[in-house]
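User: I'll paste a sequence; please echo it back and then give the predicted structure.

Assistant: Echoing your sequence first, then the prediction.
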Amino acid sequence: MGTLLLENGRIWTNDPERPWASAALSRDGRLVAVAAASDIAAPAGCERLDLEGRLALPGFIDAHAHLLGVGYALRSVDLKGTSSVEQAVHRVEERLRGAPAGGWITGAGWDQHLWPGGRFPHRRDLDAVAPDRPVVLEHTSGHCSWVNSAALVSAGITRDTPSPDGGIIERDEHGEPTGILLDNAARLVYGAMPRTSQAERIATLEAAIAHAHHLGVTCVHAMNVSRGEFQALHALNDAGRLRLRVREYLSHERLDEWLERGIETADGDEMLRVAGVKFFADGALGPLTAWMSEPYEGTDNRGLPLQPVEHLERDVRRCLDHGLATAVHAIGDRANAEVLDIYERVRDVAPGLLRRIEHAQLLHAADVPRFAALRVVASMQPIHATQDMAKVDRWWGDRARGAYAFASLLASGASLAFGSDAPVETMDPLAGLHAAVTRRTAAGEPAHGWHAEHRISLAQALAAYTSGAAAAAGDGHLGRLSPGCSADAVVLSNDIFAADDPKGIRDAHVVLTVVAGEVVYRAPGV
């Protein structure tokens, strides 16, 4: 790491003492001066980057992504935006024609709510194009999988296989599996898939990291990190090849192993650090498994907890007792209330360790102020609001007024950390910023914003993608462009603060990404 000067720019520092500057100088990965260009003298041998008046921001921090999953998604069948079962099957058929013989076919992103009739697909739909080769397609929510008969056979799933705790094997009127596996049931198939080698995982992570850099992301809170992903990340870092800051939230499925190894929050270095353990309280809205206080509209279904509350509380306590922070996935209003109750009961256990709720999608009004009172971070993904609003209106009805309550949480004093949930949704922070500020889709619908009372300002949304996300993992030196902070920055093509309409946020793109004072992405022609 050398010396880098960003000059002739419009730099939003996210520092309330000095919010704007025109130049920033870094040395050995840290900022040493952020001020007017006339106040900074470039030392000899300094690399100088003329921003040509462009807007620079602190590097985006994605507070909730599945990093290895992003890499896998880049090479699997993309089913996002498919408008019918037939279109989804056609994409699988196209992949089969170009794929080497043998092996499993994987994909992700389908959403039955976008298809005529809104019904779940069937294994027979896939059997028509892949009668002998296992196919596994993950729902856009990540909480449901659609598989063919060959995949069921490989996993040993028959009409006599019981649904596991926290999961459902959907069956037809004859008791036969339909090929839809909800939540924990999908693990039965994933456990039967061929194991990925360390070299393959490393290559997959490097593809995901390059994708993050392209989008201006300089740090990722990697969720549900398995043993294999943990090993691959550490191998990359040990070799000096990890050029993205990663904060690991380890999979609860390996909790005994993490505790036996004595792993604690903050283990690691500037680039790679353990942040905590990720748990699940419930499923998701898409497959109607988010845990609700009242049934989904027009049904008697309240979703499901993925484990008994007492088991979740026991394991949260175990983590805190052993020096590990916790992050708990909760989407439905019942799940969020139960997790807040757990955090209230353990508030005096290791109070210095951070507590988070991931998603916090639907909240009772009475639960909103509890986040600040209990010092629980609301780790949310604003792109979900605009992508899911039709499903929310359909299945949650009037309760939608408590969904994705960004403004109410901020007004109550809660800490917000924004992320993407990639590959469930796009990792692009500009898309997330647009959703948080406008509550409108990319097409501008609805014109005045969906439940517009929950819109927040651009500065508030940027803070949630920078300093708020940094604080959620205990990174006080990230998320701002101030002397002493890490030299992580992103430069945009357009000044999103100057847009006449907030929709203009989506017109911008990343032209430079800087991590620890080194340019890791440069757009063509820049």
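The chain has 16 helices and 24 strands. The radius of gyration is 23 Å.
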